[in-house]
């Protein structure tokens, strides 16, 4: 599979919309907005990227504006400086608490830097925690450990999963938005 990135800009009333075209073996084009950068993921030979971006320019402008606002809020986030042992003890305390509450044991817990996730849970009960969580407030760490331990019981992110999350964290949607802002703050600090 060959991937070729081509930079483009589409002029609009609100300024240029810069984007890259990435060709892949797919049937239909789509837009991806990652970290404030716009990508047109298109089938090989696709020649209507500008029209495609123009068609969805209102969506792109809205999402780009939202991203910039999140970046601004991220600048105001205070990151914690914890010792590794203190952080790992805190995570293990929360994992033990939620494992007992949910009724599913955790096999092993691993800590490592992860590029795009706060954590993961394998089907064998192993939980991996992003070591960058150490910079988050305790309540955010508690939320993420609950989320990962809950995956011992419910493997997917369907309705039942979020029903259980809501039972413990009624404001989980706000927490998720705040986690996105912390992610941007941590990336900026790195």
Give the topology string: H per helix, E per strand. EEEEHHHEEEHHH
The name of the CATH topology of the largest domain is: Zincin-like
Bin the strand percentage.
15-25%
Radius of gyration: 20 Å
Q: Supply the helix-strand structural class.
A: alpha/beta
CATH H level, superfamily name of the largest domain: Metalloproteases ("zincins"), catalytic domain
Biggest beta sheet attributes: 4 strands, mixed
Mean of residue pLDDT values: 89
Beta strand count: 7
Work out the helicity level: 40-55%
Helices, by number, come to 6
Shape: elongated
CATH architecture of the largest domain: 2-Layer Sandwich
Count of domain modules: 2
Give the N-to-C terminal Cα separation. Answer: 32 Å
Cross-sheet strand order for the largest sheet: 1-2-4-3
Low-confidence regions: none
CATH class of the largest domain: Alpha Beta
């Amino acid at each position: 599979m060959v991937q070729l990135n081509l930079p483009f800009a589409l002029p609009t009333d609100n300024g240029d919309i810069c984007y890259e075209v990435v060709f892949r073996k797919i049937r239909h084009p789509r837009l991806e907005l990652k970290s404030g950068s716009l990508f047109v993921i298109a089938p090989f030979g696709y020649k209507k990227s500008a029209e495609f971006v123009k068609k969805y320019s209102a969506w792109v402008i809205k999402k780009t504006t939202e991203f910039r606002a999140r970046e601004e809020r991220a600048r105001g986030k205070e990151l914690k400086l914890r010792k590794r042992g203190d952080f790992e003890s805190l995570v293990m305390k929360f994992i033990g608490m939620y494992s007992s509450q949910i009724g599913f044991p955790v096999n092993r817990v691993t800590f490592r830097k992860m590029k795009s996730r706060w954590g993961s849970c394998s089907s064998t009960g192993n939980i991996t925690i992003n070591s960058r969580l150490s910079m988050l407030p305790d309540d955010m760490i508690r939320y993420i450990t609950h989320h990962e331990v809950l995956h011992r019981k419910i493997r997917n992110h369907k309705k039942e999963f979020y029903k259980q999350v809501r039972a413990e964290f009624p404001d989980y949607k706000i927490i998720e938005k705040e986690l996105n802002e912390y992610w941007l703050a941590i990336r900026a600090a790195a």
